[in-house]
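Cast an eye over this sequence plus tokens and walk me through the fold:

***
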Amino acid sequence: MPFPPIARYARPMLSLNFIRENPYVVRKAIADKNVALDLDALLQLDGEVRTLKTRVDELRRQKNEISDGFRTASPEERPALGARAKAIGAETAEVETSLAEKNAALDALMLNLPGIPWDGAPVGPDESFNIVVRTEGEPPRFDFEPRDHVALIEMNDWADLGRITQVSGSRTYCLKGRLALLEQALMFWAQQRLSEQGFALMTVPALARPHAFVATGHFPGHEEEAYHIQQDELYLAGTGEIALTSLHTGEIIEAEKLPILYAGYSPCFRREAGSAGRDVRGLLRVHQFYKLEQYVICEDDEAVSAEWHAKLLANAEMLLKDLEIPYQVIEASTGDMGLGKYRMNDIESWVPSLGKYRETHSCSTLHDWQARRANLRWRDGERKVRFVHTLNNTALASPRILVPLLENHQMEDGRVRLPKALQPLMGGEFL
């Protein structure tokens, strides 16, 4: 599908001046992030666009000059001036058509420009180059053979995982009874915790227009992961970040309004394209889920956004510690962090049945890369308008979080002991 041009919704993801002046920096980011982008072709197009713009300006100057000359020209001179004006008009139309085409081609290339990653990111093409920063908590030691979450669910009649596939197909779930209550209680509990940290709770729709996906950097490149409602030209979002990023598109936020802290709660949908055969059993990888997303808009100061990155990460860790789930923090490599991210830390929670940690949270700093796409700006103390920095991190995503929660707290008889933080919400020690 054709994507809205940058000129309408956003600005270049890196300023063209920066690209022209720092081609080696940009070239290194392209290589480190394993992006298929020909920077030389982009710079050549940029040069052609600038040349054509200069020519259009010159032709318009000449036409204005002729128009001014008509007022004082004699009747004998006017036919020649008219012919010259007509010729200039025709050339202008031709150059403007070429300029529009080359501008569109340049915009398309600009959408594939990566953000510059931070110096501390491990350099590598994929997740195999990620580094474990630290490990928190000890995986439980069972004196019995632990069950996986599906066995626990079936044993306690907490879901209809089999029946629901007749209705909605694979990778869907249907919780019931105490587990359904726990899912709702978990989300409400997490919302309260973030509210205490100063985040404004936002319930946002999963439906979004294509430009909102372009603004966050999900499009182009990840269209196959989103459900497309063609009749209405809408897509189903896989994260509340998509709606939250575009809420302030085109606005200039005054300095005293920053930072903006949102806790976005929404249903989320992912097609899980490319995951055939992976995590088909159970709740780890489903098409529809619920997510509470931390989202920050702050001034474009590297130190300030670094502080917020640490805060978002700390919030996620606070929740996991209260849930008494062992986890590890990951420093994502340049090739795994995504096109626009400056820095990304994943949190992986321990899943006993798999004997390994699995991702449950992802904390990302994007500096002004996303803001340029979404046209998110602020006015500083000197009244200068600048692009903001944006950050996001999962607070909780369900039902995925239920997997480590059930498995780490299971007992030999199949019951699940609730963490102390959840016991008041569920009215007892056990689920």
